[in-house]
Amino acid sequence: MVGSIIGVGVANQLMSTRTGTSGVDWNQALNVGKTLLISPLIGFGVAAILLIICKAVIKDKRLYEAPVGTEPPPFWIRALLVGTCTGVSFAHGSNDGQKGMGLIMLILVGTVPTAYALNHAVSPAQTADFLAASAQTEQVVSKYVNPNALVGNSRDELTEYIRTKEFKADTMLALRQYINEIGNEVKEFGLLKNVPSDRMSNLRNDMYVVSEALRLVPKAGKTEFTADDMKVLANYKKHIDLATKFIPTWVKVAVALALGMGTMIGWKRIVVTVGEKIGKDHLTYAQGAAAEITAMATIMTADTLGLPVSTTHVLSSGIAGTMAANHTGIQMATVRSLAMAWILTLPAAMIMSGSLFWAFRNLF
Question: Tell me: the pLDDT tens digits for 77-91?
């Protein structure tokens, strides 16, 4: 999914005029790439250490045995595995669910902008709060405007800043003007749902540009905002993001159902590969629990940091780590196949999605 989005972004940038809101944010893409690369290594190491600690602390030999036929494990072991499996499922859904919801929203905003470009659920009271925050933010930004600054087109100035990350003397003036323009436009229509369809996409893009500029300007270190002024900027950004970064309830429910149904239908092949084909011996209860606890913790940490990871990558690496710690050996043929799939999936998805975007753009 990450590769598909990057592929579309690259194709769009090659086919369109280069601006700060087109193409790919390569810094963010690099962070995602690092996370996808490092997370399996973390899974391998942490799961191995966890199994070693488990062996030192818990002496019940049944925990370190592989399942025999259809005989169920002891009750406490079954409860442990149900708990760790539930944790992995929740973490998997929370991380992969965000990817699915994000992709659906990209499609909805692109195909049905009238309904989904802006959050129609924003209430009159929230709109009034936004207008008040807009006026307050405009006053704060004015304090940091260079008196010699001169801006012809505030949008061009800010999008160029977002693209290059080069803070200029005109940046704060452009930001103030843009905040003023957005506030006036929202005030004109009263509510976001009243914005005409032909202006809705533009207003969304304007809000995105301002939100991204507000994220980058404090990090640039060129302007020393006071603590109170930072609170005002953060409050305004929160209102801007409420209008553009939202997920309807039906999208959340649809993604949750799709993840659950997909797991129910297609679980067997992956379970057999993970449980029987990574190590030379069958997975024991302790190895499964250690790998699942590691996967759950790693994925939920990535969620907190806002980074996508692969559940399969982390869990498979965790199982390989427990096999190494248990000195039972690893089936290198399976590991090579998994590694090749991981390596090839991203560029293949980029090429396919970019090619399809190019084809659809030219055909329609």
Answer: 999 999 999 999 899
